[in-house]
Structures are given as C-alpha cells and as structure tokens.
C-alpha cells in the first residue's frame, strides 16, 4: 500500500470503482497494515484507505487520548474525530474517490473513532463495521442518522469494551435514527470468525440494498 503527503500518514490501495471504499482503522499499538487482510476478506475488490493514529501512548499509536483504561479524553476524541473527517475529505479529492460509498472497518480504538465519526460527522461517514467498540463520547449531538447503518460485534467477556458502554453506543445510534445490527460472541477483546462472518453478510446485504 502506498502513502502520500496528506494530513495523516496512511496506506492506500486502489481497487474497483464499483466496490465501496473501505476505511481501515487499527487498534491501539497498531498500524495501517493491521486490517488489510480483514478488508480483503470483507470485500476483495474494494479500494483500501488505512490511516495511522496520530496519538502516542507510551509509544503505542492511538486515535485519541485516554485518561485511564476505558476513560476517554472527550475533548481529544472530538478534536481527533474532526481531524480524521477532514482527512477523509482530502483523500476523496486526492485519490479521485468522489462520492463513492465509504465503509469504515475498525477494531477497538479504531472502532471507537469510527463510532465517533458516525455520531459527530455523519457528513463524512455513514456506514461502519465495528469490532469491540463502545460509546466514545457522552451525550453526542442529536444529528439525524437516518441514512447511517452500523454493524457491531462485541464479546460478552471483554474487559476492555464491556457490554454496558457497547449497548450505550447502540442506543445512541438508534435514538438518532441509525440502523444497527448488533452481534455478540462469548469471547473477549478480539475479532472472532463468527463476528467476521456476520459482518461480511451484513456488508453484502448492504450492497444489495444500495443497488
């Protein structure tokens, strides 16, 4: 995957113009390469756009600061969300993506910044596949999310993304009109085979709906 001098360091690989663009958002300590294989499984024909988180936590790349495990710096979440949304606008112009369908795919911290994008900047992101996500900001604004659809997969024994804040994210999305598919698995903080299968089916059903 190649990189260019936009506002965020990133990887980019062109795919079919007929397939959605996948925005790949890594977890804490990850890199733009982390979810490439996952993106290829979800949609082999898709263009892949994979930026790198700009926050360093003891040398580990993240998308926003946190005050403790599971306690986010809300002001930083908001600022970094707008930064990522602005980058997406730059990337659309630079790579000639126009108004092509964009679907975020995120894990953990990457899923949380994707969730923040759907809640705070629906002009930038309307579709997301979130693994191990939870509500990233308290009391998000009351944007109209009727055109937003989100898939979530969370573990019932995940100490890093417990079910209560995960359910709070579902509630926040649904209260604003988003269509949400919530999947649960019995494991912990990871992407499971059944979660990936369910995400793939959701993604492909969305493609048929868009046709």
Automatic annotation (TrEMBL):
Keywords: Hydrolase
Segments crossing the lipid bilayer: none
Top-level division of the source organism's lineage: Bacteria
GO molecular function: hydrolase activity
Matches recorded under SUPFAM superfamilies: alpha/beta-Hydrolases
InterPro entries recorded: AB_hydrolase_fold, LYPA1-2/EST-like, PLipase/COase/thioEstase
Domain Phospholipase/carboxylesterase/thioesterase: start-end pairs: 17-201
Name of one Pfam family that matches: Abhydrolase_2
Assigned protein family: Belongs to the AB hydrolase superfamily. AB hydrolase 2 family.
Name this protein carries in UniProt: Phospholipase/carboxylesterase
Protein's organism: Haloactinomyces albus
């Amino acid at each position: 995957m190649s990189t260019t001098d936009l506002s965020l360091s990133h990887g980019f690989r062109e795919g079919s113009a007929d397939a959605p663009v996948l925005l790949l958002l890594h977890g804490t300590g990850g890199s733009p390469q982390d979810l490439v294989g996952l993106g290829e499984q979800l949609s082999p024909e898709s263009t892949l756009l994979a930026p790198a988180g700009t926050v360093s936590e003891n040398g580990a790349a993240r998308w926003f600061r946190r005050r403790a495990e599971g306690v986010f710096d809300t002001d930083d979440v908001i600022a970094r969300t707008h930064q990522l949304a602005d980058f997406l606008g730059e990337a659309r112009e630079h790579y000639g993506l126009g108004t092509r369908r964009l679907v975020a795919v995120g894990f953990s911290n990457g899923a949380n910044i994707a969730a923040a994008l759907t809640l705070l900047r629906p002009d930038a992101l309307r579709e997301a596949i979130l693994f191990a996500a939870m509500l990233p900001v308290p009391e998000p604004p009351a944007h109209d999310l009727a055109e937003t659809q989100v898939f979530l997969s969370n573990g019932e024994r995940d100490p890093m993304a417990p079910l209560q804040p995960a359910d709070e994210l579902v509630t926040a999305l649904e209260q604003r009109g988003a269509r949400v598919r919530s999947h649960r698995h019995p494991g912990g903080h990871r992407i499971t085979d059944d979660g990936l299968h369910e995400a793939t089916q959701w993604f492909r059903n969305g493609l048929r709906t868009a046709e």
